[in-house]
Design brief:
By secondary structure, the protein is mostly beta strands. It contains one helix and eight strands, in the order αββββββββ. The strands form two sheets. It has a five-stranded mixed beta sheet with strand order 1-8-7-3-5, with no helix packed on it. Strands 2-6-4 form a three-stranded antiparallel beta sheet, with no helix packed on it. The termini are far apart.
Length: 222
């Protein structure tokens, strides 16, 4: 009974060494005896780091100095300066002044059936002209500035309530984009012996742009 009480009264005695001092079983992992601190001993053959991504796509005997370092520095627009050197595409060797190009964008040449020409309430311009009643007629050159952002097909004609002495040509074509060259139309008045003041409403339809340009033409026949 006394032995049991002695053990309960001294719980640390179970971890005491025979000499009365606590035993030590800790592992010091940071010491050289327990951990290899030498690191990675691998080194390249050249004893120094170097590029290892050397290309393997050059053909045998390739000379990298054969092409001048300035080649291609002008970009894709370099040929605009007149230098059109380089290999020709098959079938395009004779592409030049004597070559014939087929295809392309067709310009409108006739007014589509059913197209209507309606005068706007406020015309974009007014033009006056004079013509002798007994003459073959008179012509004026009407210069129309382009108003669309891109190239547009146009169709020109006088409204049905215009005087029959008026005509315009060409009746169809392609108008330049805004800021480009104006479209020139020839307006003709043929009075056929009649004198007086004739009025005509010229409408230029731009169907792709859903717009139109209108002129009021007044001819004084004497």
């Amino acid at each position: 009974m006394k032995l049991v009480l002695a053990l309960l009264a001294s719980p640390a005695s179970a971890f005491m060494a025979g000499n009365g001092r606590p035993s030590s079983s800790a592992l010091h992992i940071s010491r050289e005896g327990n951990v290899d601190l030498s690191g990675n001993a691998w080194k390249p053959d050249s004893e120094k780091m170097g590029a290892t991504d050397t290309g393997d796509y050059f053909p045998e005997g390739y000379d990298r100095n054969a092409i001048a370092f300035t080649e291609g520095m002008g970009g894709s627009q370099a040929m605009l300066g007149g230098n059109r050197g380089g290999p020709a595409l098959p079938g395009m060797e004779n592409l030049g002044a004597d070559a014939i190009l087929m295809g392309g964008i067709d310009e409108a040449s006739e007014i589509p059936p059913g197209m209507q020409f309606v005068m706007s309430s406020v015309p974009d311009g007014e033009v006056q002209m004079s013509v002798a009643s007994n003459s073959k007629g008179a012509e004026i050159l009407l210069s129309v500035k382009p108003v669309c952002m891109g190239f547009e097909d146009y169709y020109a004609a006088f409204t049905s309530d215009s005087h029959p002495s008026f005509s315009v040509s060409p009746v169809a074509g392609r108008m330049d984009r805004r800021g480009g060259e104006p479209t020139e139309l020839i307006v003709k008045c043929t009075p056929a012996g009649y004198a007086g003041t004739f009025t005509g409403n010229l409408v230029i339809n731009l169907p792709e742009d859903n717009s139109k340009i209108c002129y009021r033409i007044t001819a004084n026949s004497f």
